[in-house]
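Retro notes, item 3 of 5
We never archived the inputs for the 2-oxoglutaric acid complex last cycle. Fixing that now. Sequence and ligand:
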Amino acid sequence: MSNTDTPDIVYTKVDEAPELASASLLPIIQRFAAAAGITVGTRDISLAGRIIAAFSDELAEDQRLSDDLAALGELVKTPDANVIKLPNISASEPQLVAAVKELQDKGFALPDYPYEPKTDAEKAVRAKYDTIKGSAVNPVLREGNSDRRAAAAVKNYAQNNPHRMGDWTADSKTRVASMQDGDFFSNEVSATLDKEATAKIVLETADGETVLKEGVTYPAGTVVDATFMSAAALDAFLAEEIEKTKDEGTLFSLHMKATMMKVSDPIIFGHAVKAWLQPVFDKHGDKMKELGVNPNAGLGALLERVKDAPEIMADIEACRAARPPMYMVDSDRDITNLHVPSDVIIDASMPALIRAGGKGWGPDGKEHDTNCVIPDNSYAPVYDETIKFFKANGKLNPATAGTVQNLGLMAQKAEEYGSHPTTFEIPQAGTVKMILDDGTVLHSHAVQAGDIWRSASARKAPIEDWVKLAIDRQKATGYRAIFWLDANRAHDAQLIEYVKPILQAAGVEDKFEIMAPREATRASLETITKGENTIAITGNVLRDYLTDLFPILELATSAKMLSIVKLMNGGGLFETGAGGSAPKHVQQLHSENHLRWDSLGEFCALGESFKFLADQKGNEKARVLGNAVEAATQGILDHDRSPSRKVGEPDNRDSHYWFARYWAEALAAQSDDAELAAEFAPMAKALAEGEAQITGELAAAQGSPADTGGYFMNDDAKLAAVMRPSPALNAIIG
Ligand SMILES: NC(=O)C1=CN([C@@H]2O[C@H](COP(=O)(O)OP(=O)(O)OC[C@H]3O[C@@H](n4cnc5c(N)ncnc54)[C@H](OP(=O)(O)O)[C@@H]3O)[C@@H](O)[C@H]2O)C=CC1
Ligand SMILES: O=C(O)CCC(=O)C(=O)O
Ligand SMILES: [Mg+2]
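Structure as it came back at the time:
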């Protein structure tokens, strides 16, 4: 569609499983919305779409795409924004390279990804690709703070239908390991700027001064942090943990966020790959470099580079044999934790392991206790404390557990997740200084070559907005409300200076507690174990971690979360679920035509989006549609219409049929809008009468491989054929 007229509701075009699901769900949404004169249009923020948009100038006319992400970035700063945001790929280097390859094979004349750019032209190409890499979408769209919680119906369903949880025993050898010194946590310094400032970041060495970055501007009141991770301390820590894992007889695993922490964490990941194969790097380092090995890209890419060097391969085998067993991503295919930096992402991986009773999958295809290595100690205590809690108290009971809601400081690239332009791998020993335009040296650190230095910041307006949201939410619920802030951590101490006066001015200090992450974890687990509820008011990283951790324990998955971003300029951004884009689900669809993606997150977001439209534009028909979406979502839960995991059982497409049917039935039954009732009564009838035929046609589609015409870029017609296989349903929806 044309990008000049903004639809009433923007539904994002994304990647992988949620994009497959959209091929079935979006036509239903558009059909229902049209009945109320509401337009629902797409904007392409997929990895493939973003690559094509970035290189459009160099592509054939009919291949070009507009920069939808940039347009959405503008839209979310306006009161008109009403965006349903599905999860998209935050690409690691191997994923980006794979997407470029697929597009090249499809005839797009894209430049190869330059691993080691030398010429200016290569550097320019690399710079473009770097802007697409990692978490490049969410920070642009998140012009507001985050409010994530389970809708009451979803929580009730989970309590009435508790999922299976792995048993925790007191003698479990599973534990969390993190650095006790030399990490980001221990080196952090922080200050709040009393006036607007522009900063430069320089590295002073024996050879003179290098400017790492200049022209970084901050409004008055910004909290500016600086910290670094010592490469030497990291290497010593990793080597020691590999040895300890072997002694303890557990699996070695590394958990970080190479996608969102797109500059720092791939480097840390590379250190782990090197530590794992240290004897091989010691012996063959030069030859491996010659072969183009880049440890940051993972063991998978490394093996690809050295596969024709038998002496290196033999030494890798010998090294592996001497190492403890590794936690596996896919033991059948020999994909280890260290193969691809984006395969193990801490927010999803740690909760899954904890839900399983502290077990990870080993190379033998069996579950084992695991050493969970989380190098930086800023947030690792959350997982450490959770594990200790379950060892002492046994697993959580989802039938009786209360809930942990989250309010996260996220707007305007707050905190670590916005730190990429000011993160550097230090080339040479010296002093990094952050110098303001009036000459003040705000922060200074002595560093060694290889250290990872970064500065993160949080602006005043988002901080104030976050505290106000917390006050509103606490008032609305009466729940125990905890700011997860550590008075002994530099950054958190600055935030506490903001939080306390705002609470005081509102006369609500007695309604809030402030606790360091470890203590807050314990308090929250104690609260929900008693069946009571609590609000976790956190910074951006804990927002991300906790909105997977608690839902995965309470509801089995974070896919069912309601995830609202109240944009600071008045618009609404409705994220679907809190989890990822589920690459495993795509594999399953491609191999056996079964899609187990659960669209409950989309249903929840859709209801909110319609209701927001009603409030925003006084559109009462939108309210009727929104209320009916809620009834339909309830229907899906009450009648267990969510997708099953196994081929041959109802899948994502069946759940969409039921969603359409319950939605139409709710519209037909309501009396707020007679026109809508009259319009949807015949559809409700047709959907009910067609049940046997429709579910039969959907079932018949499953069981053999499905071709959607691509992975990163599907063929629209093929995708529609796969995802809309019921002629009877299509005839009703149109
Ligand atoms: N908001 C965003 O844009 C986000 C994007 N991502 C991106 O997603 C990709 C993969 O991330 P990763 O963290 O590994 O997570 P995954 O997408 O692999 O999700 C982890 C697991 O959670 C379950 N799951 C998540 N969502 C659903 C759903 N709607 N229905 C059913 N099950 C669900 C699946 O479990 P099972 O397989 O057992 O069914 C899945 O394997 C990365 O590119 C990452 O950057 C990640 C988080 C958020
Ligand atoms: O942007 C991303 O890469 C992932 C976002 C995420 O995990 C979250 O917000 O929960
Ligand atoms: Mg997350």
